[in-house]
């Protein structure tokens, strides 16, 4: 069924949840629970069916989820040869009650590299457009004004009463915390208030305008993005890379310049990539730094090109793709002059601006916080030769180093990074330190470290090693464990923060590793591109487990989500302007 049209007389009409009585006092919201529970159970049944379908179909074409005894290299070579012959045709289908007939199409791109595509449909799901109310509030994180669509029961009841007084028929819905979050409360998150049921966004427009004219804060919303409503369409691409039989390399790359934005498919075409997906979070606005630079950890061919935002999830690619791991990584850097040492708080970013926060001295928080730009008054930033752009200018001190670390000049900020050299820029106390300890002709020693935050083990990074970082980790040791609050993508203290980003369905890109050491790269379309709604963070984790992932990580998503095969974009990106230029990408090279 098209998102643009809902039958006038639906066979499965949406029943308003706990409608507000036309007289005061407003009926308690408590009766919402049974209806919500019924929908929750239905969603779980549908989700389980979807998962089962994925397992049934993927077991053949992808070869994931097999026992460890099957992981021997000789078996994998035989398996790939057989698959290469068999996968020219569609891979099969599965039909389960409540779902349509899913046809996975699988292609062997190269020995050890396979890509499967599917559109999963659920004809029993009938989402619609509605008007969702918001509570004007103050952000706990920034202290600024914001709006929350999920709030307290008292707010929901009061708002529903006021809406009723203005002639609107309101309904109140309970919203639960996702079951797979490992570091947030469980059970009830809060309540939201909605008005109306419409076949299109345009049809919801007059009702939205009337609600706003009555003095309420609201927006139109597709209920197919809700976790309570089963998704009716999902377009999914899954690439599986078997390092035991693949003869090429896997790398995270910024295509030689960390200060640029390129589309995933253009990088793939430039490098002759077999498969490419977008990578980590990056700067998209000049207000937050230099566009294209990463807002988290970035390592390319063993070189540290961006520091982490606290301890966040990362995909580690070792020895050109011989081994993979997902881990929460932290990074640090420092510069030494004799016995004097100063901490470097950034690599290849604008001094004073820290996107996603997570660094010592950051204001308003040193905790990682997604899509918030913190500031640093006393900041020291290192620029490497891969920063191929004009250096930031402004107050502070700049020190230029040659390839041996010797000071070439000390002065005002600006210019460019010399070939083979590096540049240090300092603000506040860091500028004072540079002025006091940087002398032309003398050497400054820069040291760097990347560690596994859970073990404290330092990663030994060299040529062929790369790291792409995003957040959060989804699957750890074979179990769903979304550390959403720890990695700063939700905040239980502030329901206005990132609800849509984390808990509503969005386009997603996901990296995972199965028990055999295969790399899984996944994209799911969203925002109704080609009808697809996307995944929530928890649904990402559930889906990756159906693929047999024992480790998984959410990469950058939304309009950034892209997969290219043989240099051509294969998924449906969600930006109206087309495929989004991104920061780093993950490329599978022959």
UniProtKB/TrEMBL annotation:
Gene3D superfamilies: Sporulation related repeat
Membrane-traversing stretches: 48-69
Swiss-Prot/TrEMBL keywords: Glycosidase, Hydrolase, Membrane, Transmembrane, Transmembrane helix
Keyword Transmembrane helix found: yes
Tree of life domain: Bacteria
Occurrences of domain Phosphodiester glycosidase (ranges): 399-587
One protein family per Pfam: NAGPA
Protein name: Phosphodiester glycosidase family protein
GO molecular function: hydrolase activity, acting on glycosyl bonds
Classification via InterPro entries: NAGPA (IPR018711), SPOR-like_dom (IPR007730), SPOR-like_sf (IPR036680)
Every SPOR domain range: 151-219
């Amino acid at each position: 069924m098209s998102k643009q049209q809902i039958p006038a007389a639906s066979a499965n009409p949406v029943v308003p949840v706990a409608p507000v009585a036309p007289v005061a006092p407003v009926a308690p919201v408590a009766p919402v629970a049974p209806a919500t529970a019924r929908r929750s159970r239905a969603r779980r049944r549908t989700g389980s069916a979807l998962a089962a379908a994925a397992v049934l179909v993927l077991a053949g074409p992808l070869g994931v989820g097999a026992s460890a005894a099957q992981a021997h290299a000789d078996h994998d070579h035989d398996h790939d040869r057989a698959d290469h012959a068999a996968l020219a045709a569609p891979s099969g289908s599965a039909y389960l009650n409540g779902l349509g007939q899913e046809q996975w199409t699988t292609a062997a791109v190269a020995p050890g590299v396979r890509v499967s595509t599917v559109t999963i449909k659920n004809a029993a799901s009938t989402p619609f457009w509605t008007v969702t109310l918001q509570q004007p509030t103050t952000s706990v994180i920034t202290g600024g004004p914001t709006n929350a669509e999920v709030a307290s029961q008292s707010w929901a009841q009061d708002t529903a009463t006021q809406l009723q007084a203005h002639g609107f028929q309101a309904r109140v819905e309970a919203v639960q915390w996702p079951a797979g979050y490992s570091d947030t409360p469980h059970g009830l998150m809060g309540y939201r208030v909605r008005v109306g049921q419409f076949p299109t966004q345009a049809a919801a427009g007059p009702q939205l305008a009337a609600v706003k004219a009555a003095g309420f804060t609201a927006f139109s919303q597709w209920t197919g993005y809700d976790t309570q409503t089963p998704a009716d369409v999902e377009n999914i691409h899954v690439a599986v890379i078997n390092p035991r039989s693949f003869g090429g390399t896997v790398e995270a790359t910024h295509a030689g310049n960390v200060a640029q934005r390129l589309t995933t498919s253009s990088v793939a075409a430039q490098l002759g990539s077999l498969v490419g997906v977008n990578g980590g979070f990056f700067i998209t606005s000049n207000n937050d730094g230099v566009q294209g630079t990463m807002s988290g950890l970035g390592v390319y061919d063993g070189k540290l090109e961006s520091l982490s935002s606290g301890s966040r999830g990362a995909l580690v690619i070792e020895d050109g793709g011989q081994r993979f791991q997902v881990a929460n990584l932290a990074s640090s850097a420092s510069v030494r002059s004799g016995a004097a040492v100063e901490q470097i708080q950034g690599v290849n970013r604008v001094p004073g601006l820290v996107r996603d926060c997570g660094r010592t001295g950051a204001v308003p928080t040193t905790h990682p916080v997604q899509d918030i730009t913190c500031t640093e008054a006393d900041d020291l930033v290192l620029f490497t030769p891969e920063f191929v752009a004009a250096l930031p200018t402004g107050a502070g001190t700049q020190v230029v180093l040659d390839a041996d670390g010797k000071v070439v000049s000390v002065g005002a900020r600006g210019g460019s990074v010399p070939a083979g050299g590096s540049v240090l820029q300092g603000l506040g106390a860091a500028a004072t330190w540079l002025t006091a300890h940087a002398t032309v002709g003398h050497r400054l020693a820069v040291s760097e470290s990347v560690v596994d935050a859970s073990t404290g083990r330092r990663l030994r990074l060299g040529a062929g090693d790369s790291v792409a970082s995003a957040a959060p980790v989804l699957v750890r040791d074979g179990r769903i464990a979304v550390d959403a609050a720890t990695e700063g993508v939700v905040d239980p203290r502030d329901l206005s923060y990132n609800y849509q980003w984390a808990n509503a369905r969005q386009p997603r890109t996901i990296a995972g590793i199965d028990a055999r050491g295969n790399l899984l790269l996944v994209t799911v379309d969203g925002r109704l591109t080609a009808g697809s709604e996307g995944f929530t963070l928890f649904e990402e984790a559930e889906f990756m487990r159906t693929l047999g992932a024992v480790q998984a990580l959410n990469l950058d998503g939304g309009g950034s989500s892209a997969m290219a095969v043989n240099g051509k974009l294969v998924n449906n990106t969600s930006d109206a302007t087309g495929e989004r230029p991104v920061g780093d990408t993950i490329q599978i090279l022959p």
